[in-house]
UniProtKB/TrEMBL annotation:
Family: Belongs to the ABC transporter superfamily.
A matching Pfam family: ABC_tran
Superkingdom in the source lineage: Bacteria
InterPro entries linked to this entry: AAA+_ATPase, ABC_transporter-like_ATP-bd, ABC_transporter-like_CS, ABC_transporter_ATP-binding, P-loop_NTPase
Family annotation (SUPFAM superfamilies): P-loop containing nucleoside triphosphate hydrolases (SSF52540)
Nucleotide-binding keyword on record: yes
One GO molecular-function entry: ATP hydrolysis activity
Domain ABC transporter: start-end pairs: 5-230
The name this protein goes by in its record: ABC-2 type transport system ATP-binding protein
SMART domains named in the record: AAA
Species: Cuneatibacter caecimuris
Keywords from the named record: ATP-binding, Nucleotide-binding, Transport
PROSITE patterns for this protein: ABC_TRANSPORTER_1, ABC_TRANSPORTER_2
ATP-binding among keywords: yes
Length: 241
């Protein structure tokens, strides 16, 4: 199976603070990869360096065989990105934002079907700023899928969504994965990670402390429950205790 994402020896510091250290990972086509870790562990920095929106100090990244910095233009057409915050004009309507986004891509997905899948069809004429936190989060996932991407990056996938909306998002992503979409996500919800991820990497202070499957994480930690395994491996348990 081909590597859709390949990261080698990726490092990034902010002054003397090492945010990501010598990160190595690879993601196969049609799989879901979860980058996990406590607040401040380095997940967003890693994603931004992988996407080339932040300059890494060292390391190599290939997405679909392309270099995200050098091949930015061609890669832009093939990937989708959901950030924790998006920039948009203050008064823009949901329909306008979706249309403007779709215009940027050569073969965009039908944004109206995406909105309807995500339960947003009644909101086309609402200003984005009037959406609830959860609705806005769903809209950002829709925007990441509008490019009709081969690979999608979802940072804090379902933060702010209610229980039903989270399940709905999982179902949609599982279906997209079945159709061959490769998904790279970060999440603080271990039930979500267990339901979706084929491979995970747990970061602690910028370093990978575990890399493998959810099953292997349980085995390695000696915990039957994945959240317990995650807490033990990520070191979050130490901080609480
Ligand atoms: N622009 C910046 N300048 C200085 N330090 C930064 C900057 N961005 C992040 N950091 C620091 O780098 C470390 C990693 O931050 P990062 O945002 O990558 O973590 P994260 O795992 O995504 O956290 P969260 O789960 O809270 O979103 C943290 O210690 C953070 O304070």
């Amino acid at each position: 199976m081909e590597d859709v994402i390949k990261v080698t020896q990726l490092s990034k510091s902010y002054g003397s603070q090492k945010a990501v250290s010598e990160l190595e990972l690879s993601v196969k086509k049609g799989t879901v990869f979860g980058l996990l870790g406590a607040n401040g562990a380095g997940k967003s920095t890693a994603i931004e360096c992988i996407l080339g929106t932040k300059k890494a100090d060292q390391g190599q990244v290939l997405i679909l065989g392309l270099n995200p910095v050098r091949d930015r233009k061609s890669l832009f057409q093939k990937i989708g990105v959901q950030f924790q915050e998006n920039c948009y004009q203050t008064e823009i309507l949901v329909s306008e934002l979706c249309e403007e986004t779709a215009c940027l891509y050569q073969s965009p997905a039908d944004w109206k079907s995406l909105c309807s899948e995500f339960g947003l069809s009644g909101k086309y004429k609402s200003p984005v700023k009037n959406l609830s936190g959860g609705e806005r989060q769903k809209l950002f996932i829709v925007m990441a899928l509008i490019p009709n991407p081969q690979v999608v990056f979802l940072d804090e996938l379902t933060t702010g969504l209610d229980a039903k909306a989270r399940r709905d998002v999982w179902k949609i992503l599982s279906e997209l994965k079945r159709r061959g979409l490769t998904i790279f996500l970060t999440s603080h919800f271990m039930d979500e990670v267990e339901a979706l991820c084929d491979q995970i990497c747990i970061l602690k202070e910028g370093r990978a402390v575990f890399y493998g499957t959810v099953g292997q994480a349980k085995q390695f930690s000696g915990c039957e429950d994945f959240e317990e395994a995650y807490l033990a491996l990520s070191g979050e348990e130490d901080e609480i205790g």
